[in-house]
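Deliverable D2.4 — example input (structure tokens):
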């Protein structure tokens, strides 16, 4: 089971859509990071302050009490590249 992690050796960015990621794909609380191996990480910022949330939620997230739809006109801030995978 993926925990906020998708490996793009088998999935390309085109497949990282609402269906494979779920609510996180359009949530204002998510940050996306990649690592040198090409993995993509969806990190939930709510997890930093609220223990009900996990840093890297299992995808796809289909229901979430913390979901706030991001304004489609807003760019999603990206995180810096990570050196290694996190569990
Ligand atoms: S609040 Fe929920 S939907 Fe939003 S990023 Fe966190 S886990 Fe994903």
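Example output (designed residues):
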């Amino acid at each position: 089971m993926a925990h906020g992690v998708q490996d793009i050796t088998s999935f390309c960015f085109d497949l990282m859509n609402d269906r494979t990621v779920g609510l996180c794909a359009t949530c204002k609380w998510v940050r996306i990071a990649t690592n040198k191996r090409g993995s993509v990480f969806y990190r939930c910022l709510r997890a930093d302050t609220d223990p009900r949330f996990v840093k890297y939620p299992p995808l796809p997230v289909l229901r979430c009490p913390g979901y706030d739809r991001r304004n489609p006109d807003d760019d999603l801030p990206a995180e810096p590249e990570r050196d290694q995978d996190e569990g």
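The CA atoms of residues 28 and 75 lie 10 Å apart.
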